[in-house]
Design a protein that fits this description.
The complex is a heterodimer of chains A (about 160) and B (about 500). Chain A has about 160 residues and is an all-alpha fold. Chain A contains 7 helices and no strands. Helices cover about 75% and strands about 0% of the residues of chain B. Chain B has a two-stranded antiparallel sheet. In chain B, a hairpin with a 6-residue loop joins β1 and β2. In chain B, α2 runs parallel beside α4 and α6 packs antiparallel against α17. Classes of the chains: A mainly alpha (about 160), B mainly alpha (about 500).
């Protein structure tokens, strides 16, 4: 029970933020007088709020329950981690691929991998058609219509 | 320049070919965003934000206004034909809109939705055009201390009310304010919190942050959902019948308009609240309550009228004081500031042309939505049934390419991904990213006014409690923060009192 309390994501998030704010408050001491007024004010207000939250969370569970009970109940439940990891993998993978190989490799790979990992795997041919069509559409919209340079890879310049 | 000259210039600017084209693009983007469940006007505006970067402020706002307003109607089409509200504000429309479709009166419901929405938006716009400048002129007396406190109040309202969890809202706002201090200090020239990263010397980029927090986080959230495959119900005929039916209920229109506008003008109260309260009011005042929920046109009229009046009402405090009327208005406010049109007391004098061209755009859009609603709306329902595995990667590619297009930087892509993950985490754990974004945008204004106020006050913070306006703003900030905690106690006491009286 006690261990679970320390694994609570908002607790860890607020604790991490408090540590970051404390480090930044120390860093801000080296700024000139004018430059440190605003960051120090904001950081110490932030540290106070986080300190209050953490203290209430750790030492006054009844008060914490009352405070949390007033929040809107639309807080979404954490879904299954599988789809989240796969989606995150698609996002990060496509960004890395875009940086290395450029638009023409990254966009169809992103669409196709998303379709295969999170959509209907059985319909491979349809997914390939979607990926090709959407890539063409994005290329025309960005490069031809809006005249924006699309991603050019560091390793391959297939733009 | 005389006031009417500014108005005329604004109207003419909105009627230029380029702006009319942008207006149409924004309108269709808005309908699309509204039709697709789970995206919403905030994410929609953020998605097209990178592509509006090369436009002048007036044109960019016209483009955004289309998404802001038309997403309402897109959401209503999905609610009426697919039984899935495209956005939360359309949920009340669904209660009688979809049963009307099941009874073969879908086209009539679409006609009602378009007509009531148009009337609500036009009347709301008139109220906005008259009240916002008056409110702004009152606020012209504000000095740096009051302006600083006003921005703090705007932040506190959003932090406290969006998820009714002020502490987590304040944590989000504090994070945004800290991020706003990253980069070169405009006054001293000191480089703050960059840790050697030259690319953030100009500060944390707003647009890339917003795209991450709203669009990429939405991609992650949508990836978890297994949306049931919906079918589009046949709308049938009777669009014009809907137009006529709407005007047969003038009292419903009036009541719902007042509710929508009033709730809109209240800081941070959104469209879904307005449409549900208007719907509940119609149920309460009806003689025969049994027909509600079974396809009563009055339910659709009330919900749509209040929803669209609220969209305009939201902009009253947003434009005149810089206090966002809702989450969507908060994002709109952030976008306005990014384009240099800073909402607040001086917006009508310094950016009058852009503001009046925005009003003109809203008027034209309302009429175009009515025309679209009475002609082609019934064919648009199919868009709402597009599968997630097509929508989600499209949003992902669109948002990342948009983020990259601003300054062609790979760093921005990773920054967008980081904020996407942060936004996802915040949404899942009861934080809201809206105060973070607003704080990031308002941060420089708060700092500038704080510095000015301290110079005027010879370095003393006493300047912040010298004028009655400052004291009022501090009191309102405190009230907004404790209100979510006090309201249940007040309700309990009130309820106890009334039970005892009974």
């Amino acid at each position: 029970m006690r261990a679970a309390k320390f694994k609570n994501p908002p607790f860890l998030f607020n604790l991490l933020l408090m540590i970051i704010f404390l480090v930044l408050a120390v860093v801000a001491r080296d700024f000139s007088d004018r430059a440190r007024i605003y960051p120090q004010l904001v950081l110490w207000i932030g540290i106070s709020i986080l300190g209050i939250w953490l203290s209430v969370y750790l030492f006054f569970p009844t008060l914490m329950r009352f405070l949390e009970a007033q929040a809107e109940l639309d807080e979404e439940e954490m879904g299954q981690s599988g789809p989240l990891y796969r989606a995150w993998g698609c996002i990060l993978g496509s960004v890395v691929l875009g940086c290395l190989l450029g638009f023409l490799w990254a966009v169809p790979t992103a669409i196709l991998s998303y379709g295969l990992l999170l959509g209907e795997r059985a319909k491979l041919k349809i997914q390939v058609v979607y990926a090709a069509t959407l890539t063409a559409l994005f290329y025309v919209a960005f490069h031809v219509v809006l005249s924006l340079p699309v991603l050019t890879g560091i390793l391959l310049d297939l733009d | 320049m005389a006031h009417w000259d500014i108005v005329l210039q604004g109207v003419l600017a909105a009627l230029s070919f380029k702006n009319l084209l942008l207006l149409l693009v924004g309108l269709f983007a808005g309908v699309l965003v509204g039709l697709l469940p789970g995206i919403g006007p905030s994410s929609g505006m953020v998605l097209i934000l990178p592509f509006s970067f090369h436009l002048d402020p007036g044109s960019a706002l016209i483009l955004m206004s289309g998404v802001y307003l038309a997403s309402n109607y897109g959401g209503s089409i999905a609610a009426i034909l697919v039984n899935t509200p495209g956005e939360s504000a359309s949920a009340a429309t669904l209660m009688d809109g979809y049963p009307m479709t099941q009874r073969g009166r879908g086209a009539e419901a679409l006609g009602i939705s378009a007509t009531a929405g148009c009337v609500g938006a036009v009347l709301g716009l008139i109220a906005l055009a008259f009240t916002a400048p008056m409110l702004a002129s009152l606020a012209l007396r504000f000095g740096p201390a009051e302006n600083c406190l006003l921005a703090v109040f705007a932040l506190s309202v959003i932090a406290a009310i969006v998820k009714r969890n002020p502490i987590k809202g304040l944590v989000s706002a504090a994070l945004g304010l800290v991020l706003a201090s990253v980069g070169v200090d405009q006054v001293s020239g000191d480089v703050r919190f960059t840790f050697g990263l030259n690319i953030i010397e100009d500060g944390i980029p707003f647009v890339q942050t917003m795209v991450g927090l709203f669009a990429v986080s939405q991609v992650l959230a949508l990836s978890e959902q297994k949306r049931p495959i919906s079918r589009v119900a046949l709308a049938g005929s009777g669009l014009l019948e809907g137009f006529k039916v709407t005007f047969k209920h003038p009292l419903t229109l009036l009541r719902s308009f007042i509710i929508g506008l009033w709730i809109g003008a209240l800081p941070a109260a959104g469209r879904s609240t307005a449409s549900f309260i208007a719907y509940a009011e119609e149920v309460r005042s009806a003689r025969d309550k049994s027909q509600f929920g079974k396809g009563n046109p009055v339910g659709v009229i009330a919900s749509e009228m209040a929803n669209n009046a609220c969209a305009m009402g939201d902009l009253i405090p947003t434009l005149s004081l810089g206090i966002p009327g809702s989450v969507g208005a908060a994002v709109f406010l952030g976008i306005m500031i990014i384009f240099g049109v800073v909402p607040g007391p001086k917006v009508f004098t310094q950016h009058g042309v852009a503001i009046y061209s925005l009003f003109t755009a809203f008027l034209i859009q309302s009429i175009l939505i009515l025309i679209l609603g009475l002609t082609y709306a019934k064919y648009l329902g199919k868009i709402a049934t597009i599968r997630n595995d097509i929508i989600v990667p499209s949003i992902l590619v669109f948002s990342l390419l948009g983020s990259f297009a601003i300054r062609y930087s790979f760093f921005d892509l990773f920054l967008t991904c980081f904020f996407g993950l942060l936004g996802y985490f915040m949404n899942k754990h009861g934080y809201t990213p809206v105060p973070l974004v607003l704080a990031l945008v308002l941060g420089p204004m708060i700092e500038k006014n704080l510095q000015r106020a301290l110079i005027i006050g010879n370095g003393s913070y006493g300047i912040f409690v010298q004028s009655p306006i400052s004291i009022l703003l501090i009191a309102m900030t405190v009230i907004s923060l404790v209100y979510p905690y006090l309201s249940p106690l007040v309700k309990r006491l009130w309820g106890g009192g009334s039970r005892a009286a009974a």
